[in-house]
Amino acid sequence: MGEDRRYPFCEIDQEECKGCGLCVASCPAKVLEIDQGKLNSKGFHPSSYKGQGCLGCGNCFYTCPEPGAVTVYLKGYVPEEVK
Amino acid sequence: MARPAVLRKPLGFVGRYEHKPGAEKNRTHYCPGCGHGILHKLIAEALEDFEITDRAIMISPVGCSVFAYYYFNAGNLQVPHGRAPAVATAVSRANPHAVVMSYQGDGDLAAIGGNHIVQAANRGENIAVFFVNNAIYGMTGGQMAPTTIEGMKTTTTPYGRNPLTDGYPMKISELLDSLHAPVFIARTSLHDPANIRKTRAAVRKAIQYTIEKKGFSLVEVLSMCPSNWKMDAVSSQEWIRDVLIPVFPLGTLRDRGSEAVEMKRPVPTFDPAKVREVLGVGGGKQKALARRRVDPKYADPSIRIAGFGGQGILSAGTAIANVGLEYGYNVSWLPSYGPEMRGGTANCSVKIREGSIGEPEATQPTVVIAMNRPSMEKFEQILKPGGTLIYNSTLIEVEPGRKDVETWAVPITGIADGLGNTKVQSMVAVGAFAGVTGLFGLDDIKGLLPAMFESEAMVLLNEKAVEAGYDYVTGMRR
Amino acid sequence: MMARKLMKGNYAAVCGAALAGCEAYYGYPITPASEIAEAAAAIFPKLGRTFLQAECETASINMVYGAAGCGKRVMTASSGPGISLKQEGLSYCAGSALPCVVVDVMRGGPGLGNIGPEQGDYNQVVKGGGHGNYRVIVLAPNSCQEMCDLTMLAFELADRYRNPVFVLTDGVIGQMMEAVELPEPVTIFPDKSGWAVRGTADTHHLINSIYLAHDELEWWNNELRKKYEEIEKNEVRFEEYMMDDAEYALIGYGCVSRVLRSAVEEGRSKGAKLGLLRPVTLFPFPSKRISELPDRGVKGILTVELSTGQMVHDVNLALCGKARSDFHYRVGGNLPSAAEILDRVSELYGV
Ligand SMILES: Cc1ncc(C[n+]2csc(CCOP(=O)(O)OP(=O)(O)O)c2C)c(N)n1
Ligand code: SF4
Ligand code: SF4
Ligand code: SF4
Question: Model's pTM, two decimal places?
Fold first, then answer.
């Protein structure tokens, strides 16, 4: 399998996110931002990934207080379904 | 433990938070930016990585993390405020194979539960304690915690914490570090990714040591409480860095993991044979001694034995009760206990009856054995008319006051001294009691002595004592 | 059956616990209950069972909570001041439906009082001294044999109802020695895998007393109440002595009941038709039996306590004003004598 250019990348579950901004502050690549234009069902402006530039450092994952709000797909990640 | 190619919600969490009431089963109950969630994630990740979700047990405290049990894929106990270390102690001992974790805030651990954490640490309980220091009471709305720093405004220190009236911030890690038993103590912080990783390492070490049964570990984590600090999450991290850390320096205070030995816990037995053996009760019914013919005056005696501490008052009573039991009578023995004993006096009631025994106290004794003068003066007064008073004439130089009772002056202490050991005066008294009442046979008592005394020498000496008491009173009768 | 052995009531309670399969003892010393801790310290380790002297009674009841939550038969023991401290944990045990056994060897109060025998803990134990709507089953032994037997029964009832059970006794019964015949050890234990946390994949249970939603907490309180009604239906125990033709009933529990027994015997020998009704369970209380006394020809009822009027309220509730109810008490460590009771009886009823 050839290398997918998207990796590494960060995925935010915007429903679970509480918009605290800790992930944004923790990102060395500055590729996360609070999406002021969006509100989730709980009324938070969620974080969002700018779509490219993630370094796969994991800072956002470990800094986020919500168990499942942040997922970081590292290089070489093989999705469950093709394993 | 290869680093996973994806960083996702750890399996140390449950998928949906079914214990959480209401519809929102996919978000925690914590405020945005709260440090509790970060620490939860580090723990949950370790549970997954160490493959211990099956045998993990989480103790949830009272505080904002009271609902930790919503989240952890583990056995869960929610417990009273501050008591988590006590509960964890028993949980760990009940399930030695389990990995028991106690999760506590600074009000919970350092204030109301202050003694429990110190004692659990001092016992070296095999538990991992995660201690969230956010310098405040989160759940109840921002009151002062033991960890609140000097000058810090809280709802109960509206003018700032004044050390002169409110004390100083408590450094729990340093406090516990003064104890011998703990294996691992570290203080870490959640204020930036590098420190979160250090926290992660400390959490894993604590859990690792618990898995290895090395004893007590505590990780104190400086943690954001944006809601009660009235700051946003990012400023809260900065406040930890700039203000809290200077008061609570970070670092590993102790790591004795390499020296610690694996803790062994006993395996309980319920084997009936073993239980019987340990309770010291032999099998079949013992054969009662043949009853003796007793003058009705002495039948069913209600006995009061009194003297000063050290005269063997209670053991004389025990011996009489034991012998009575061997004859198949119902017996009871009731000591005076407590302050009276401290005053140096002792007395006990013994009842020996054919029928069942009602009140155990000899309130109207039929026999009084008085070993010193105050005891005689006190107890001859309640002696039943026509009753029997045996008194220690070695120490009691006056005549008894009662004229309506039978009196026996027996130099009990003197006889014991003559045998070379004052201590046997209790058995001299037993012998005298047997001789006067005829309730017990001399040889029967002698036969029971080996069960009452450990060494052969003591058995022989006490045999002589019983005999001397017995002979003295039977000699008087003759 | 095993042979009879002379032992203290406190010691007998530990024998009963060991025989009942009690796996852990968590306690803190206090006179006149300390021999229970001491006996457990001597006996339990020999059986591989846990004995731990906790830092305080609050800790020990929470250790009990922990062990009970893991499905272990567990006990603690104390006296008045220590029982006061245990009340928080007891409420949590009841709220989380955890079976456990607590022995209270009562002493004199209030405050530090003294260590003489008293029955002043009746209210805090029988009425539930902790917060919330809960009850505990209360067994009241009056002999060393019963200290053993009722402690064994306490473990059984605790498991049957998943509820704390008290063995409520006093300094006299705890400190006295009598012959005890130890029953056979229990070998069959209830299966608790459906709720106890054992540190295994299939016991990822939750031990908890929190019900945030008002309706849910109301439901849980109703469940508890149903359980207590069930207990009241099934578990009332009492003992009667010469009650068949009694004209005057003496009511008392624990060591008092022994004095009353002596009083009944002495009274009968003088022609007074006395009888004794002794509650063995204080919750559930033998209210029905007491309420029947007037119809059985009982003309006077004298309740005697080592407290200044605690159980007598339950007697009066049962009687509902249908019969004359009198009260006599001694406190401070003093016991009434049988003679004193007979004097009181003749003063009250002219017999
Ligand atoms: C016996 C008792 N006293 C008081 C309370 C009220 N209470 C609940 S949480 C809490 C303080 C918790 O603070 P902390 O342990 O610092 O945890 P945090 O909420 O900050 O995480 C208090 C006092 C209680 N539940 N029980
Ligand atoms: S993994 Fe690192 S670089 Fe990528 S988004 Fe998260 S913090 Fe930014
Ligand atoms: S740290 Fe988590 S909760 Fe906070 S904004 Fe980022 S994704 Fe949302
Ligand atoms: S009050 Fe503070 S500690 Fe509690 S959840 Fe909110 S931020 Fe966290």
Answer: 0.95
Distance (angstroms) between ligand 3 centre and the Cα of B144 equals 28
Instruction: Considering every ligand atom shown, identify the ligand nearest to the alpha carbon of residue B139 and give its number.
Output: 1
Residues B341-355: tens digit of each pLDDT = 556 789 999 999 999
Please give, rounded to a whole number of angstroms, the shortest distance from the CA of C123 to a CA of chain B. 23
Q: Report yes or no: B155 and B227 within 8 Å, Cβ to Cβ.
A: no
List, as one string, the DSSP characters of B389-441: EEEETTT--SPPS-SSSEEEEE-HHHHHHHTT-GGGHHHHHHHHHHHHH--S-
Count of CB atoms situated within 10 Å of the CB of B290? 9
Provide CATH 3.40.50.920 ranges for chain C: 239-349
**B23 in reach of chain A (CB within 8 A):** no
If one counts every other C-beta atom within 10 angstroms of the C-beta of residue C271, the result is 7
- Contact list in B for residue A75 (CB cut-off 8 A) is 5
Asked if B371 and B305 touch (Cβ cutoff 8 Å), the reply is yes
- pLDDT, tens only, B357-416: 999 999 999 999 999 999 999 999 999 999 999 999 999 999 999 999 999 999 999 999
Q: Locate B471 and state its tokens.
A: 């002979």
Going along chain B from its start, the domains and CATH numbers come out as 36-255 (3.40.50.970), 296-477 (3.40.920.10)
ipTM: 0.95
CATH 3.40.50.970 is the classification of domain C4-234: yes
Residue whose CA is at the smallest distance from ligand 3 atom 8: A17
From first to last of the 83 residues of chain A, give the pLDDT tens digit.
445 668 999 999 999 999 999 999 999 999 999 999 999 999 999 999 999 999 999 999 999 999 999 999 997 665 555 54
The CATH fold assigned to A9-82 is Alpha-Beta Plaits (3.30.70)
Establish whether residue B64 lines the binding site of ligand 4, counting it when its CB lies within 6 angstroms of any ligand atom. yes
Identify which of A20, A25, A76 has the shortest CB distance to residue B5. A76
Mean local confidence (pLDDT), B286-303:
92
CA–CA gap between residue B214 and residue B126 (Å, rounded):
7
Q: Which CATH number fits domain C239-349: 3.90.1750.20, 3.40.980.10, 3.40.1440.10, 3.40.50.920?
A: 3.40.50.920
Q: Secondary structure of C131-147 in the HEC alphabet? A: CCCCCCEEECCCCHHHH
Does A33 contact B at CB distance below 8 Å?
A: no
d(CA B447, CA B327): 12
Task: Please check whether residue B430 is in contact with residue B445, taking contact to mean a CB–CB distance below 8 angstroms.
Answer: yes
CATH 3.40.50.970-classified regions of chain C: 4-234
The verdict on the CB of residue A56 being under 6 Å from ligand 2 is: yes
